[in-house]
Specification:
Layout lengths: L19 E8 L6 H11 L3 E13 L2 E7 L2 H11 L6 E4 L5 H14 L3 E3 L14 H8 L8 E2 L3 H7 L6 H10 L4 E4 L9 E7 L2 E7 L10 H14 L4 H17 L2 E3 L2 E4 L12 E3 L21 E6 L3 H6 L6 E4 L6 H17 L3 E5 L2 H6 L4 E4 L9 H6 L3 E6 L2 H8 L5 E4 L16 H11 L5 E3 L8 H6 L4 E4 L1 H4 L4 H20 L1
Parallel strand pairs: 1-2, 1-4, 4-5, 5-6, 6-7, 13-14, 13-20, 14-15, 15-16, 16-17, 17-18, 18-19, 19-20
Antiparallel strand pairs: 2-3, 7-8, 8-9, 9-12, 10-11
Helix pairs in contact: 1-7, 2-3, 4-5, 5-6, 7-8, 8-13
Length: 502
């Protein structure tokens, strides 16, 4: 089985020296699909697309008229030349002969790069007449070399014995050696369109509404190339799948005719909206937690995270309206009593108190809300929390976690790390102000809380991005004069917000 692509996840960062994806595929004479679409999709994510041509084709919206394969040794020489650009990912589309597949079966292990394999068994010009099963027999040789394989449902059925069952097909593709299998749902008539994604310890679906447009040539090419481009930017596979799905939906929204004829999607820029609906068997669906902002309290503001109720007595009289109790060293009655005391103090000051992790005690003592990390979402009874009327805050660090968290319709979303932090070990690259600004634009419908590494000298800039709250721990709890520091931090936040509006 191909190795899992070992990269960290992070928010969008501009690049100055563009990475490269090597795109292997055919040339569409109409310029709508194939390598033309690969190049446009990579460019949308600011990635350079090198090309190795497997075939020139004669096709248009009326049909496929000719396929002219290149010799396998000619294809190999193109790949060798393109390697001078040190591509980070290889994207494979149309392969035109068994010899080409045989050559790649030997070549790809030597190159040692992640591979996104778009199993093109028929071009969009061929329609339903193509011999999918015959072509699939030779292509299966490449499945063990694929980091991600992206068949549509008919192709997945031809590659496996799963028929029209996308879950079984994805599992079978994994058993055949692919690290990740994405079975695309666009060829069905269902609305929404549902892609089934299966990888190491993951099985989930990404759904988006079907857009009513005829301009869909090259959609499969676009999705696979967008996945490869996101991986080349340094995103791990599960994030790349979410980003690619967002970008493709955005591209289809922008699709239009070409000289009055059927056109294709138009990928244009890194996506900052069109989040797919995430589904899996581990999280409940159809939840909708109460809001934590209102006309009286439109922002979460300074959001201290403390470990004892006594901190609420110190900080809430200063005007703090949101606070989190995160206790790591108490158990049993001592823990319950501490939470009960914090709830009482918060209620007296009309403060929004979120209890970290201990959702049962938060429900028992009628706390305002609960904050959970991604690792706690599966073990907590989210339906019980919602039924009790508590608010929910969720920590998120990357596109995959955001899609997963958004499926719960939480009260607020915490994103980070904004900067490097010593408070907690985090494998993610700090987002910085650019990344935080991206999140505020991409998640405009939710109150956002910035977390990790924020200090007095940068809290004003963080506030100016438009976040609803800023979480602080050691800047307050380790201060010699916590009250004075808290007043100063709130003033700096207010100045940052005023500067962003001025």
């Amino acid at each position: 089985m191909a190795e899992l692509y070992p990269v960290t996840t992070h928010a969008y960062h501009p690049v100055t020296d563009r990475p490269t994806v090597l795109c292997i595929g055919g040339v569409d004479s109409a310029g709508l699909a194939g390598l033309h679409m690969d190049a446009r999709s990579c460019e949308a994510l600011d990635i350079h697309a090198a090309a190795a041509v497997t075939a020139t084709t004669a096709q248009n919206n009326d049909g496929l008229f000719a396929v002219n394969p290149v010799n396998a040794d000619v294809l190999e020489s193109q790949i060798d030349a393109a390697m001078a650009l040190s591509p980070r990912v290889i994207k494979i589309g149309m392969l035109a002969s068994a010899e080409q597949i045989e050559m790649l079966g030997h070549k790809l292990p030597q190159l040692g790069l992640p591979v996104v394999l778009d199993t093109v068994l028929a071009t969009s010009s061929e329609g339903a007449e193509a011999d999918l099963t015959g072509r699939a027999k030779t292509l299966t040789k490449l499945l063990p070399l694929a980091t991600v394989v992206t068949p549509n449902l008919p192709e997945a059925g031809a590659l496996t014995a799963a028929g029209n069952n996308p879950d079984q097909a994805a599992a079978a593709l994994r058993e055949s050696g692919a690290t990740w299998a994405v079975v695309k749902g666009g060829h069905s008539d269902a609305d929404p369109i549902v892609d089934t994604c299966v990888g190491p310890d993951h099985h989930f679906q990404l759904a988006q509404p079907r857009l009513d447009t005829p301009h869909l040539r090259g959609t499969g090419c676009a999705l696979a190339s967008l996945i490869a481009a996101a991986m080349a930017r340094g995103y791990e596979v599960r994030d790349a799948l979410v980003i690619a799905r967002m970008a493709l939906h955005q591209a289809i929204e922008r699709a239009g005719p070409v000289n009055g004829q059927r056109g294709c999607p138009r990928p244009m820029g890194f996506p900052n909206g069109n989040w797919p609906s995430y589904r899996d068997d581990k999280l409940p669906s159809a939840l909708n937690f109460p809001s934590c902002v209102s006309e009286e309290q439109p922002q979460l503001g300074l959001y201290p995270i403390v470990d004892r109720a006594v901190w609420l007595q110190q900080l809430l009289p200063l005007g703090v309206t949101t606070i989190q109790l995160r206790i790591k060293d108490l158990h049993g009655d001592a823990l319950s009593d501490e939470i009960a005391e914090a709830v009482r103090i918060a209620r007296d000051h009309h403060c929004r108190l979120f209890i970290n992790d201990y959702w049962q005690l938060a429900v028992e003592h009628h706390a305002y809300g609960v904050h959970l990390g991604q690792e706690d979402l599966e073990s907590a009874d989210l339906r019980a929390i919602a039924a009790a009327g508590l608010r929910l805050g969720v920590s998120n660090h990357c596109h995959y976690e955001l899609a997963r968290g958004l499926a719960l319709r939480p009260s607020y979303i915490a994103v980070g790390p904004t900067y490097a932090t010593q408070t907690k070990d985090m494998p993610w690259v700090p987002h910085g102000l650019d990344g935080l600004q991206y999140w505020t634009e991409a998640l405009a419908d939710f109150p956002l809380v910035a977390i990790a590494g924020i200090k007095d000298h940068n809290i004003g800039q963080v506030s100016a991005t438009g976040v609803s709250g800023v979480a602080m721990i050691t800047a307050i709890t380790d201060a010699d004069d916590p009250e004075s520091v808290t007043r100063d931090l709130m003033a700096r936040m207010a100045n940052g917000v005023n500067a962003s509006h001025g």
